[in-house]
């Protein structure tokens, strides 16, 4: 029995490494706590450093100085994950780190300025995930030694089973583009903790289907209700139900961990279609003639993911494609503006046309309405038996049609991955554009942002 589970554990670890485009790392930093290796602790650590040149929104101050363009270097993600298989059926996972630290912000809580123990220094670690999981029905039948057609794991804690879409539960280790489009985490840092909530979940396989279902308790929000515009205010928050179901046409993907792969770098043949949802009663509020109205949050998505080798096997070329349609309902005219690692603040003296989204690189990120997103990339063929660098150009397009804005916004991304050793060591270049809304029915041109990301992962 122990040998059987050893095989399963090794297979899961290998599959996770295999997804990163390099077989040199095996199961990574794994420390056995029994001679058979069926009980172990595995550590994963990674960093994503961004060097950026940002065309700021009109009316932006950077550390008190008006700036049209800003260059900076910062930490997008600095993280560590530890998982412990403490028995053949029981696993504990902890994922912690810091995010979005620039030369101005992302540092210690409760401080201001950049001198001494300033806001831009000494960020506090926090948990992204911390859950326990129990295998109810394993992948392999213990008696027949054959695969079970139906499997199930249940768990509880601060977790990532948030439904909606594949991208909502994406791994940050192996994106095709430089990052997720962010709107995929529709509740980010409002009623969740960095895309996680406390709850109980179930996940598993049913033939070629993979399923995930969760009952969560959203974090409390207390935005001030306004006339005709929904804001995040759930008071004593109601429970939320989330789920995602996908069909796997070709290779089966590992679901040992909830993190979905963005590109397999030519190592698997995958075509999946999926659908997901998130629903919470009385998640937002607005005023109607001065009377408080409560609104449900109902989020739906349909998506498809394709990743497969093309051409001659020895050339190891591959294509990766992902498309998703997101239908979000947060209540009337709900709109949220976000800028990733935004170092800008609004200049109160600026009297020209200001961006509705605010300062820096902020943009209309998510709201009541619909979003279409698609991305595609091609892993170029090998030019030798042992290429020093693999190249993977990509492009992405986003269309956002929100109730609060009369004009549909178009967003473009163009770039390339340069794999030094799969996702374990890669450099990504990306140029992105965003529309500048100066009124709900006026788009006054576009602004750009150039990012170079340096990623290491073990």
Automatic annotation (TrEMBL):
Keywords: Signal
Protein name: Porin
Signal sequence extent: 1-19
Gene source species: Runella salmonicolor
Organism lineage: Bacteria, Pseudomonadati, Bacteroidota, Cytophagia, Cytophagales
